Amino acid sequence: MGERAGYKAGMFCWAGLATSNPAEAEAFYTRLLDWEAQELPAGAAGTYRLMRRGGKDVAILYLQTVEARAAQAPPHWTSYISVADADATATRAGELGGAAVFREPFDVPDAGRVAAIRDPTGAIVSLWQPRSKFGAALVNDVGALCWNELATTDIERAKTFFSDLLGWAYEPDKGGSTTIRNAGHRNGAIRELAAHERAIHPNWLPYFTVESLEQAAHDAERLGGHKLSSPTQTPCGRFLVVADPQQAPFALFEGDTDP
């Protein structure tokens, strides 16, 4: 039910982990989410690990850039949005008040072309121009990406930016956040950073589906991660946020992932 053969422009297509220790991160996620890893060339970025579940692409994992490590930037997950032209979209983001970050758009040999932008509220998201790799071939299923959420200090400014950049539309969510719609389909959410989160920069958080939230949280801690929140109930299911052994946060979700 969660198999994909491509994504329309403006849709989230997969998630990527920039980590300080790819080998340790690989060991953690392969055990936690039953992923397999294949190391592939990434051009100017060196190499990356393509993460699969049951032989289907689900995410990517790579070493943080030299600049990021020198700046002691923490490891983090990044949400990827499918676009027709990464260069043109990054340029347009700059015109709208965002900024391209870390380098100009670059090619991942044969797979695609990637750029990262910072929205006007400070959150970073990546743009993916597909070639042989369109993104995750499995989503909305156990062990796969099911949701992307922006936590920000200025919801209206973020909404305007992405609407102008990608044509996103929005609707209020029952939980108090804003649901993103792209080409008529649910495509993630935007919420305001809570008072206790204000020390955190605005950020995108990926959600991965699990069969049992309690078991997955227990396994994450056993494997060297730790919980960052308690289970939270939503109209669709329950989630909690955890950090991997390199301190990169992500969410585990148990419930209905029907998009």
> What's the CATH architecture of the largest domain?
Roll
User: Which strand-content bin applies to the residues?
Assistant: 35-45%
DSSP summary, beta strand count = 18
Secondary-structure element pattern, one letter each: EHEEEHEHEEEEEHEEEEHEEEE
Task: Provide the number of structural domains.
Answer: 2
- CATH fourth-tier homologous superfamily of the largest domain: 2,3-Dihydroxybiphenyl 1,2-Dioxygenase, domain 1
How would you describe what is shown here?
It is a single chain. This protein is of the alpha+beta class and 259 residues long. It has two domains: 12-130, 2,3-Dihydroxybiphenyl 1,2-Dioxygenase, domain 1, CATH 3.10.180; 145-255, 2,3-Dihydroxybiphenyl 1,2-Dioxygenase, domain 1. Helices cover 19% and strands 41% of the residues. The chain contains five helices and 18 strands. It has helices spanning 22-33, 66-70, 86-95, 155-166, 213-222; strands spanning 12-19, 36-41, 47-53, 56-63, 76-82, 99-100, 106-108, 112-118, 124-130, 145-152, 169-172, 178-182, 185-192, 203-209, 226-227, 232-233, 237-243, 249-255. The strands form two sheets. Strands 1, 2, 3, 4, 5, 6, 7, 8 and 9 form a nine-stranded mixed sheet that branches. Strand 3 (47-53) and strand 4 (56-63) form a beta hairpin. It is globular, with a radius of gyration of 17 Å. The termini are close together. The mean pLDDT is 92.
